[in-house]
Amino acid sequence: MAAVKRVAKELAELDSQPINGVSVGASDSDILKWNIVMTGPPDTPYAGGIFTLVLELPPEYPFKAPSLRFTTKIYHPNVSNDDKGAMCLGILRSDTWKPASRIRQVLEHAAALLKEPNIDDAVETAIAEQYKNNHEDFVKTAKDWTRKNAK
Amino acid sequence: MAPSRSSRTSLQSVDLRALDYLASPSANLLCPICHSPLITPVQTRCLHTFCSACISLSLERSLTCPVDRKDLSHDDVTPAPIMITNLVNDLVVLCPNRERGCGASCARWLVESHVREDCGYALVKCAKDGCDGMVERKDVEEECVHEEVGCQFCELSVRRLDLDSHHRECPKLSSECPHCAESFLNPDLSIHIADCPAEIIDCPASHFGCPYTSPRSDIDAHTSNCHFVALTPILQLHTERITTLELENRTIRQKLELLTPPRPLPTPSSSTTISSSSNPPANDGSSTNRDMTSEMQDYTYHLYSEYEQLRADVERLNAQIRELDVKQDMARINEGLRYNDEMTGMRAAMNGLRMQLHWLVASRRETGAGSGGAGGGASRSVAGGSAGDGRRMSDSVRQVMKL
């Protein structure tokens, strides 16, 4: 119950002071499930793309970390390339999450990762390799995916 | 009655966490866990402050500080300095019964006693013994408001609490028409209002610009000599024509945009403002239409850009294919030239070999014809042959040519 109040507060705050390129809204029936839309930052292979994400907050929030996943397919070293589209964020790991962390920070981290992937902490090691060693091909594929999936 | 009212205490509990604050409190006074102003603040060994309930919940899950993740045990949590407690307790909150109508606000530490003893909108137990119902403190009367009583006009029985709202719609009671001040029974009132002769209505041609208004009973006298009403059929026709033409115009413009090369968004806004200023009545009708067409416009733009992109792709591929063609041609020609060279070389080499053969055959014949027993001479001539090969060969070539 305490969770719901805090979540409502955080939602209202993000509504009045939005993060650049990120818009949030709770789903109609469940305030613990947020629908998030991120626009691909300019000067990245994701530019022009519109990516939808789902942020799920556990009932134990803020004592347990939320989870963030892409529902739009994206070619990114830190997003798992499967149906889940789970995003690997340091702040969300159970050994780094703390109740004082806020959803705002989570979303800011996610937006920053779109701008600059974190190669050392990749879930898709193959994509990370490509990002490092064959950057042109990475950019090409990421752009292709953006055009195909994120319009 | 007043003393009995105020002596009645409300059992309604106040959830301090759910309170609304008059002014948004300083961020320094918020608990990092629940993000609400601290309630019973406590302090940790690492000097972070939390609500007492929040930190207990957190420590149940993990024995670390929720802010800096340092190790923490229940013993490391002590009450916060009294000043912090006072600061949060002095924050002004709105009465939790605000939704029921209480406009009171007070310091947070007083809100519980306000609800328990003063608030007129707090729920208290009904005055009658044996009744379990709850009633707002201001409505407490000697008789129980939860008892069903018969309406004195109709045969329905309603709770005393709901009697007032029932009277407003009781079918046996009458109410006044807001226009003609005549009284009607409640069920008939709405029928009457629909055509009350006293209601002030607009001229039927008001949307074409007639400013005349009058009671419904007098409107007929006006319409019989209103110019606008007389012109209504023609105006109607024109409006319809303008609407269809506008629609047609829009589709044609869209087609045009699709066929001409892309340019920054054309100016549908300016064109619609022109049409709306010249033709206000048609404007309302076409607004939804415009939404739809703008959606379609977006869609056609999307298709167009897709098409452009595909065309660019195809052009790029074509250029690449052409380039590859040229490259391949060049390669083939180069190869051919090389083979030609090689072939002439081979031919020359073969000719040389033929000459050599001829020379050898000729020299063998010569030696055979000259002296029969000069085996050593023959071997010498072979050895000498290898030394002066070049010259002699060219000589022999000349001989063969002569032959």
Automatic annotation (TrEMBL), chain A:
Cited PROSITE patterns: UBC_2 (PS50127)
Origin: domain of life: Eukaryota
SUPFAM superfamilies listed in its UniProt record: UBC-like
Domain UBC core residue range list: 2-151
Alphabetically ordered keywords of this record: ATP-binding, Nucleotide-binding, Transferase, Ubl conjugation pathway
InterPro entries per UniProt: Ub_conjugating_enzyme, UBC, UBQ-conjugating_enzyme/RWD
Name of the protein in question: E2 ubiquitin-conjugating enzyme
Lineage: Eukaryota, Fungi, Dikarya, Ascomycota, Pezizomycotina
Automatic annotation (TrEMBL), chain B:
Any Pfam family hit: zf-TRAF
Residue stretches making up the TRAF-type domain: 93-141, 165-210
Superkingdom of the source species: Eukaryota
InterPro entries the record matches: Znf_C3HC4_RING-type, Znf_RING, Znf_RING/FYVE/PHD, Znf_RING_CS, Znf_TRAF
Transmembrane regions listed in the UniProt entry: none
Region (Disordered): 256-292, 367-403
SMART domains (alphabetical): RING
Key word Ion transport present: no
Annotated SUPFAM superfamilies: RING/U-box, TRAF domain-like
Biased composition (Low complexity): 268-281
Range of residues in the leader sequence: none
Coiled coil: 304-334
Entry keywords, A to Z: Coiled coil, Metal-binding, Zinc, Zinc-finger
Identification of the protein by name: Uncharacterized protein
Organism: Orbilia ellipsospora
Upper classification of the organism: Eukaryota, Fungi, Dikarya, Ascomycota, Pezizomycotina
